[in-house]
């Protein structure tokens, strides 16, 4: 008789997926592209089936970008609050796609909006994860002047995540912009200090500092390649990793 195949064993048991709003726009560049939502939902379902606890922090740049609006003369705090509301729209869209894929979900918002989302409470978020639900964190940190990258790092640390994985359109971290510089070097592994000193465009400095102080690994990967999220949680060398 043939021996049964060994079950796949995840390396990471609890992860935070950082999704930009632009990731939901696909090739359109703005708004929400339904086929992209469906594909992301299918990838998340594959991870949940491995009994991995997964939370998502989502941006709002496909709908409204606070920094750009403030540069145009709008009050920065007002622009940032508008950006937070855009993340709520994206969170509800992702929730709908995930539930159509057969998953249980909860949207937790840093800004109270009880008609559409639960208020963010750390212990409640952890309990949802323990019950196998996908938790979507919306509205950033609830404070202006902080990016959703910082929100992602903060939430990952609060819930005791093993890693934060950041979805991008490139296959990792480069020494410079690979689109502008054909000779840019891909860095499979790097450190928090190197990211800060070389100003590598991984996350903003507040997010990197938070991860460094709490020894939270950051994995940057290409979301456009199907199956990458599952490969990461299984420990395959996907993208670039930032550690101490």
Walkthrough of the structure:
It is a single chain. By secondary structure, the protein is of the alpha/beta class. The protein has a single domain, classed as Carbamate kinase, CATH 3.40.1160. Helices cover 38% and strands 19% of the residues. It has nine helices and eleven strands. It has a nine-stranded mixed β-sheet, sandwiched between helices. It has a two-stranded antiparallel sheet with strand order 7-8. Helix 2 packs across helix 4 and helix 6 runs parallel beside helix 8. The chain is globular. The chain starts with 13 loop residues before the first strand and ends with a strand.
Q: Which properties best describe this structure?
A:
244 residues, alpha/beta, Carbamate kinase, 38% helix, globular
CATH architecture: 3-Layer(aba) Sandwich
Counted up, domains total 1
Strand content: 15-25%
**Integer average pLDDT:** 93
What composes the largest sheet? 9 strands, mixed
Q: What fold name stands as the CATH topology?
A: Carbamate kinase
What structural class results from the helix and strand content? Answer: alpha/beta
Shape assignment:
globular
Order of helices and strands: EHHEHHEEHEHEEEEHHEHE
Taking pLDDT < 50 over at least 5 consecutive residues as the criterion, the unreliable ranges are: none
Number of helices: 9
- Number of beta strands: 11
Classified by CATH, the class is Alpha Beta
Rg over alpha carbons? 18 Å
Helix content: 25-40%
List the strand order in the largest sheet: 4-3-5-2-1-6-10-11-9
End-to-end span in angstroms? 47 Å
CATH superfamily: Acetylglutamate kinase-like
């Amino acid at each position: 008789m043939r021996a049964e195949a060994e079950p796949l064993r995840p390396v990471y048991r609890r992860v935070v997926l950082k999704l930009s709003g632009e990731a939901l726009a696909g090739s359109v560049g703005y708004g929400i592209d339904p086929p992209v939502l469906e594909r992301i939902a299918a990838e998340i379902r594959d991870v949940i089936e491995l009994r991995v606890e997964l939370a998502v922090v989502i941006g709002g740049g496909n709908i409204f970008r606070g920094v750009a609006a403030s540069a145009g003369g709008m009050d920065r705090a007002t622009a940032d609050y508008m950006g937070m509301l855009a993340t709520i729209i994206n969170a509800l869209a992702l929730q709908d796609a995930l539930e159509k894929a057969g998953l249980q979900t909860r949207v937790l918002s840093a800004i109270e909006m009880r008609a559409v989302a639960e208020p963010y409470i750390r212990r409640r978020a952890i309990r949802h994860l323990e019950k196998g639900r996908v938790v979507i964190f919306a509205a950033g940190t609830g404070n202006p002047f902080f990016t959703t990258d910082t929100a992602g790092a903060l939430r990952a640390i609060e819930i005791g995540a093993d890693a934060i994985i950041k979805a991008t359109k490139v296959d990792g971290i480069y020494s410079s912009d690979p689109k502008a510089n054909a000779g840019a070097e891909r860095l499979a592994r790097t450190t928090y200090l190197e990211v800060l000193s070389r100003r590598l465009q991984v996350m903003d400095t507040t997010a990197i500092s938070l991860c460094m102080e709490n020894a939270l690994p950051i994995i940057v990967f290409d979301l456009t390649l199907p199956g990458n999220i599952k490969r990461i949680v299984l420990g395959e060398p996907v993208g670039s990793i930032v550690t101490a």
